[in-house]
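User: Modeling request: complex.
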Amino acid sequence: MLTVRRFFATLGPGTLWLAAFLIVPALVMLGYSFLTRTDLAQVGGPWTLENWGRVFGYDALFQEWTADNARVLWRSVWVAGLSTALCVLMGYPLAFYIARQDARRKNLLLLLLIIPFWTNFLIRVYAWILILRPFDLVPSLTATLLGMVYAFVPFFVLPVYSSVEKIDWRLLEAAQDLGAPPLRAFMTAVFPQTLPGLVAGILLTFIPALGTFVVSDILGGAKTALVGNLIQNQFGQAGDWPYGSALSFLLMGMVLLGLWGYARRAGQKGLEELV
Amino acid sequence: MIRRTHPALSVWAWLVYAFLYLPIIVLVVFSFNDSRFGATWAGFTTKWYGVLFARTDVREALTNTLTVAVVSTLISTVLGTLVGLGLWRYTLRFRTALTGLLVLPIVIPDVVMGVSLLMFYAFVRSGLERLGWTFDNGFWTVLLAHVTFQISYVALTVRSRLAGYGPELEEAARDLGATGLRSFTHVVLPLALPGVLAGALLAFTLSLDDFVVTYFTSGSGFNTLPVLIYTNVKRGVTPDINALSALLVLVTVVAIVAANALLRPRRQP
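Assistant: Request completed. Predicted assembly structure:
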């Protein structure tokens, strides 16, 4: 039984820490999103809904609706979606290849996959400047996509691999014995077994791709500005914290909504397996 | 058992590996390039490493990075392990809420976490200023931020390590006359230890790797290596940053190969 004393001896310190440095800052951010920018990076009264209106495209000065933010959001979603799709294309077969090797080779191949995965993110993105600059591709959307796929593909492969590892291949044999052609046998006997890993891999690629500002900042240039860049700019050059807060909430809302949908289908266990 | 893989699958796999290693190899090669502008090859040199070692800001950033990583790992390992143990041991009414709280730092975009902490620190500062106290963003603000995202990883690693064991183990120790503390140090902790170490290793790497949260919480006077690399890259490519990156890649490779050799289960004779 969890008594108050035991709570403070085990769960207490950690949960209180998270409450203090995760929940309270989120509440502070929520409060800021209803304030007004007074001076550069200074905030104050009066309380207003203007920032939230702006997030959804209402220009208070000209009293009209604009699609600028909708465009940025849409671009963020499809850039993240496209780079996730490319990760699937590259990584899904790779997971099968690794899983089908003997133990020694498998270990080596996993090691080779983990090395880029654990190499500093910034260095991995930066290295692409060296390669793409001679082709005049920095900054560009192509470079951003390439950088994202490169940065996130190991995140995708690892969960898929652990699903492929657990595949019961006898099902494939059974399907073949019953006369299923190769593609059909794969789709009915193998693919469904990889689904948990596939979904986890897609989420682990899509979410960071949706929120990143580093890749697009270093490789993308102004034209590929994503919602992450828009947020960063409010806390840098633009110095508009209240508007930045509202944007951050929107981004967080999009991610949490997606995860909530996933958790409803996969249950709490699925959510725990994700991490 | 013979495992066949289609030749096309092998070709595809090796192409993906080539893609993964191309930038890393280019980076290392260009760190030995005797040209200020990386694009063309102008002969072999090690001078950029000399330039790098002479930079005091790099040395300072390295010290900062390691200090934050070591201290934050120690704190988060203790707090995270306790949370992981609590999750394993007790039946909780608010388990879903607690799991949600633990998953949150892992899933919310790091830019959101960074800016919310930035504003939180500003908010606390404005409160303290009324009492006549103040503080600058720097080591402490970065440290607290790192612990915050590390706790979850440690807690979840420890909990999943213990998931296979039931509370009977601890009860058995109690029945045999062990005190609470003794059953904890002699039974529970040894079982959890691989999870604790794996969690600590993960927390340490996350701290070394973190750019976004550090960038927003560090203020102007406190650089870590990722922040330093970012500001240098924004100013334009400099060959000594290639050298720094190449060295960091080398450290990563050595650390992973060593960890792999140490953690590999021993073969039965």
